């Protein structure tokens, strides 16, 4: 099968209108996410939200969004490529397939974009999801071979069967001990994620029956596009966008210090020369200037601490996700990404007493 002609890339009128709407709404999605994140952080209080809008850096918001959702972009590119190519080779006719925006986007997608998506996924996906990445790559290669070289049986046999089978064998030689460890440890999900994708890849590199082609590709992509924004929003709503800080300040100096859940402890040292009692406030640091430190506590209440009353300040580490797996793949922890494995990490030291609500001067 030859490369699609330029005429086949033209959108029907209805599909063209859908594309224009999609391109108009797509840039607004990150902006909506950023606004909702501030609304969520402010506990739905308008005054607090306006304060955050004034002081929170847009670059900080974008950075948080990028780090949190960097794995989503390659997943979208690979799924669009796989589902679109599957629709193109399985639909009763090319005219029927190009009624779907999915098929036209796939035809217009350059190969280098797919390669970049694969490389990005390889370093940002957790180890337990890399077999799924291998499956998607093998599917994309096999289905693209059907689309471009569908009349060459030798090439189809090699790219659609021989390569996936050989890849599965190599994958199981590498993943075998980890799969057995997951089974022995009762980690069913990890055993499935590590063991199933290489096995099913060889049977997913060809067309499906024309009668279910549109249902299994176009409408599956539509359903995913409806669910994905909500899933992405839930993930980003919990991403930190302000530093977690503990401040040691003179007792009573904090404006509106009536919080009931914020950690605080007053200490008055014994002796003839008594020092003013101090208390510790922990929360998200909003801004610091010459006269005031603005902090948001765990309940979303904003606290104003005079700079003259601040004794000391420290950054507190973010709470790490509790590991849910004991599986290692050739020394690589199943829940780590290649980026985490290669990049340097801060060494954990003794916890700062201020992060635990205790002043450093406490005896």
Automatic annotation (TrEMBL):
Top-level lineage group: Bacteria
Keyword ATP-binding: no
Sequence segments annotated as region (Disordered): 343-363
Transmembrane domains' residue ranges: 21-41, 61-89, 101-123, 129-147, 154-175, 219-237
Keywords: Membrane, Transmembrane, Transmembrane helix
The keyword Transmembrane helix belongs to this UniProt entry's keyword annotation: yes
Bias type Basic and acidic residues, positions: 347-363
Name of the protein in its database record: Uncharacterized protein
Organism whose genome encodes this protein: Catenuloplanes atrovinosus
Organism lineage: Bacteria, Bacillati, Actinomycetota, Actinomycetes, Micromonosporales
């Amino acid at each position: 099968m030859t490369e699609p002609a330029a005429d086949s890339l033209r959108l029907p009128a209805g599909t063209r209108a859908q594309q224009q709407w999609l391109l108009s709404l797509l840039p607004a999605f990150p902006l909506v996410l950023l606004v909702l994140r501030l609304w969520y952080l402010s506990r739905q209080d308008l005054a607090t939200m306006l304060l955050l809008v004034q002081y929170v850096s847009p670059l900080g918001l974008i950075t948080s969004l990028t780090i949190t959702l960097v794995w989503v972009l390659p997943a979208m590119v690979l799924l669009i490529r796989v589902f679109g190519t599957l629709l193109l080779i399985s639909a009763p006719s090319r005219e029927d397939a190009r009624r779907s925006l999915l098929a036209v986007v796939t035809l217009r997608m350059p190969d280098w974009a797919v390669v970049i998506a694969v490389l990005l996924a390889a370093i940002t996906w957790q180890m337990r999801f890399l077999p799924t990445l291998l499956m998607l790559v093998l599917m994309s290669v096999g289905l693209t071979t059907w689309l471009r070289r569908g009349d060459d049986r030798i090439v189809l046999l090699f790219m659609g069967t021989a390569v996936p089978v050989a890849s599965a064998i190599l994958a199981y030689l590498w993943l075998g001990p980890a799969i057995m460890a997951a089974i022995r440890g009762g980690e069913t999900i990890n055993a499935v994620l590590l063991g199933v994708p290489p096995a099913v890849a060889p049977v997913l590199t060809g067309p499906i029956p024309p009668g279910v082609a549109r249902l299994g590709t176009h409408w599956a992509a539509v359903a995913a596009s409806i669910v994905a924004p909500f899933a992405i929003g839930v993930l980003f709503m919990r991403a930190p966008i302000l530093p977690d800080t503990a401040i040691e300040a003179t007792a009573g100096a904090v404006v509106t210090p009536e919080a009931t859940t914020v950690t605080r402890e007053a200490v008055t040292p014994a002796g003839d020369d008594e020092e003013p009692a101090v208390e510790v406030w922990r929360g998200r640091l909003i801004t610091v200037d010459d006269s005031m430190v603005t902090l948001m506590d765990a309940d979303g209440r904003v606290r104003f601490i005079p700079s003259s009353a601040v004794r000391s300040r420290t950054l507190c580490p973010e709470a790490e996700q509790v590991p849910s797996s004991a599986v290692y793949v050739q020394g690589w922890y199943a829940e780590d990404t290649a980026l985490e494995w290669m990049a340097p990490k801060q060494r954990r030291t003794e916890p700062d007493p201020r992060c635990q609500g205790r002043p450093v001067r406490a005896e």
